Amino acid sequence: MAGTFEEIAKRINQTTVGWINYYGIANMKAFIKETQGWLNHRLRQLILKRWKKPKTKYAKLRQYGIDHDDAMKIAYSRKGYWRLSRNEIIHRAITNEKLTKWGLKDITQLYELRYLRD
To answer: Which segments within the chain are labelled E, that is strand?
Structure first.
């Protein structure tokens, strides 16, 4: 995906909000929660992949509050982006709250607000 993270989040939000509005009347709370987890995982992979060089990965992880040893483990790992994005260290660096703060809408919350009012 090309573009800034804000542009990507905007496009994802357009799709997910439209999708929730169309299919949201179905009872799919578990499916929505699973989809939100997958989407967050995929975005962490995308962010990690955009950092490319180990030096950049290390600097960004340090910027997001990860200590030296853990940042080095991730920055210089030979594992793939998908596997690394599942790591607990990446979850501490790129939290769900940060993704929301950067413009990604929480579809679980959106679904609950719209259809689970009872």
So the answer is: none
